[in-house]
Amino acid sequence: MRIIPIAARAGITGFESPASDYLQLPLSLDEILIEHPSATFIGRAVGDSMQGVGIYDGDLLIIDRHVFPKDGHVIVANLNGEFVCKVIDLKRRMLLSANEQHQPAAIHEWDQFSIEGVVIRSIRCHCPCAMPGE
């Protein structure tokens, strides 16, 4: 991966010349973002219910099935055939939104419910033209 360093000099901020020396790093994004490759998948957030934890509509979610879900984790679950991204409250068996405009959802014994994985990272694409799959 080649990185163009961005630095502030003499109180002026901005981009260095593209002709500046490049820094070679031996890491890949996979190595930085994914801890358990065989247990990880990527999804896309839809809606505004998770804005309070920094997940916005269109963000990419890195979801790890290997991580054991705990109270307060952001998870992706299948609730009655629909994938949802919520904060899990295991003690009260509830799915919580991170936006007060959305009500919590109780997980009832008659619901078909499975936790698909824990959201370990989210990525925001700032240019709609760069969105994967579009």
Report on this structure:
- The chain is mostly beta strands and 134 residues long.
- It contains one helix and nine strands.
- The strands form two sheets. Strands 3-4-9-5-6-7-8 form a seven-stranded antiparallel β-sheet, with no helix packed on it.
- The chain is globular, with a radius of gyration of 19 Å.
Low-pLDDT segments, ≥5 res = 1-13
Q: What percent of the residues sit in helical stretches (DSSP H or I)?
A: under 10%
* Series of secondary-structure elements, N-terminal to C-terminal: EEHEEEEEEE
Main β-sheet: number of strands, strand sense, barrel status?
7 strands, antiparallel
Q: Supply Rg.
A: 19 Å
**SS-based class:** mainly beta
Q: What distance lies between the first and last C-alpha atoms, to the nearest angstrom?
A: 24 Å
User: Which shape, going by the Cα principal axes?
Assistant: globular
The portion of residues forming beta strands comes to 25-35%
Q: Mean pLDDT score, rounded?
A: 84
Total number of strands? 9
Question: What's the short story on this structure?
Answer:
This protein is mainly beta. The protein is 4% helix and 33% strand.
What is the topology?
Blueprint: E1 2-3, E2 23-24, H1 29-33, E3 40-44, E4 60-64, E5 74-79, E6 82-89, E7 94-96, E8 105-106, E9 113-123
Antiparallel strand pairs: 1-2, 3-4, 4-9, 5-6, 5-9, 6-7, 7-8
